[in-house]
Amino acid sequence: MTKLKDDFEASGGAFKEWRIGDLFEKIQTKILKYKVKDLEGKYGEKYSLPALTAGIENQGLSCFVPRDNATILKNVISVSANGANTGVMFYQPEEFTVLQDSYAIKNINKEETSKNEYMFFVSVLQKTIRGNYTWSEKAGWERIKAEKVSVPVDSNGEINYSYMEKYISLLEEEKILKVEKFLKDSGLNDTTLTEEETTALEKFRNGEVKFEERKIGELFEKVKLGIKNSSFNKKTDLSACKDLEHPIPVINAKLGDNGIMYWAKQGDFETISKCIDVIQNGAIATGKVYAQPQETGVLWDSYLIKHVKTTIEDEQLFFFTTVIEKSIRLKFYYDCKAYWNEVKEELIMLPCTLDNSIDYTFMETYVKAIEKQCIARLKASDVFVNSRIAAKQTEPTDKVENIRILAPSSVPVADRFSRFLPLYPFHIACGALESGDALPEDDIEGWIDVSNCGFKINEQMFLVHAKGESMLPKIHPGDLCLFEKYGPMYRGGRDGNIVLVRQSNMDDDYGCQYTIKEFYSDMDPQTGRTIKVELRPLNQKFHTIKVKESDQVDVIAILKCVL
Fold it and tell me: How many secondary structure helices (H) and strands (E) does the chain include?
């Protein structure tokens, strides 16, 4: 990250203030006559489109609506315009629509804004907007468009999208490394299900688990905790972040961050572990429930409950937390607070044995299985896989050794595009993809096993040999480059990515009009037309190709990794 900042400043980069209204425009959407309460629990073939409201959970997508007559949006920023969450923004990479108390905005200065660029924008927008608007002064578009945000620009004063792209990529890599270390250190890296865990999942899916009602107050009791430090001062004795001086989490009426807004000094609060946190007050948090397995204290507007009879495992604590929240979350609100005297009378559904005893073993096994499945999905996600690949590409000497190219007759059809990818002559792959044809099987040079590259492959992917030195240090002459075809099926933008591209009036290392370069473009904010395209080498010894308006440039595929 330091090198990126140094390079940015050395090239004349700086941060410049822009009016939000000069960067974005509000998207007009059709009015949908649905009520959130009537859509609760509806999801299926008819109700399949996520709908945006003023919520803070699940990216603000609180329910599903029919796709008919809805304005379907994707790759934009959503803005909460009402309630206690007014001004909260999210990047929305998947299809959704706007239902109520919110709206969506899009970049007007760049035709194809990438995920990372929008993520950067969300961060700078939130610094200005979030927390500065209230229930009575809502973050409507007419208000916020006049606000100013600080955005990186290049030496010409133009928005530096390349810096934004790389900044978020590096940040993601750092976070993923921390997650990987946590999974390894905590013993959660193994996601293989045991026989018992597989059985628990199958029984639950098949409806073979017996559930019975139990009253919350029969299983849990409220814990009385106080402040031990008689001279405690909230302003001076609490920290918004955990540090060596403030290691103890204390709960209050906080939505998000596991209900923890402050951290206290050791010994200032009475604490307890393996409890459940119930928020009893707050405009949006009333009735929210969190598991608190670690030592925790109570600040205000919430309380802790503990199991009355059994010392329970963390997985059982998580199971109880989920069923309690399912029971009480929608029954309590600001004018109907979640006090213990009311909550303890509510019923929850729990798995039971044949003799009607609570099946604690099933609870623990089932949660362990779900935990493993969630971690496996995380590790297979695009952001996790791509971050690993990006990290791999920064190590130019770390190449996969002893790559074998197998003849087509040696690779079973079932293993093609699931374990093996085809290797094509460079000009054959480019020509077929540009014309929209399927890649010709007769011209395949061979198939290569890519199963150990940590990458989820598909039928849009293929391999070619690189030539030349313009993309050093990431790509060396002779390297095998794995590309994914660029088109309607590709999820993501071109800018900031290394691409396989055709540009007329060019003769590169490949002896044709095709080359591998980093793609950059800019757009006229008034007309929306692309006014600048550059094909940039990574090797500073080579010149950037500045595409003329009269030239044609076509992105054929996006580089996914280098073997």
Answer: 14, 29
